[in-house]
Amino acid sequence: MAGLGPGPHRSGDIAARLGTRVQSVAPVRAVLIAKGMVFNPAHGDAGFTVPLFDPFMLRATP
Question: What is the pLDDT of residues 2-27, one digit of tens each?
């Protein structure tokens, strides 16, 4: 998600970036929502719960 830029992103866009299907990323998305790291502002969307978390992830992971 961080590689897609700021803001909520469609699950299909995230899956396409990872080169997989939406059904494959859905369980990971559910875990991240349960942990409070990601929220879904609308059906099929996902966004980080912490402001500026996307640039942090880009710096922290090569």
Answer: 999 888 999 999 999 999 999 999 99
Kindly provide the b/e burial profile for residues 35-47, where b requires at least 16 CB atoms within 10 angstroms of the residue's own CB. Answer: eeebeeeeeebbb
CA angle 15, 9, 20 (to 5 degrees): 0
CATH among 1.20.81, 1.10.10, 1.10.3460, 1.10.3470 for 2-60? 1.10.10
Please tell me whether residue 45 adopts helix, strand or coil conformation: strand
What's at 40, amino acid-wise? N
pTM of structure: 0.83
User: Rounded to an integer, what distance in angstroms lies between the CA atom of residue 36 and that of residue 19?
Assistant: 25
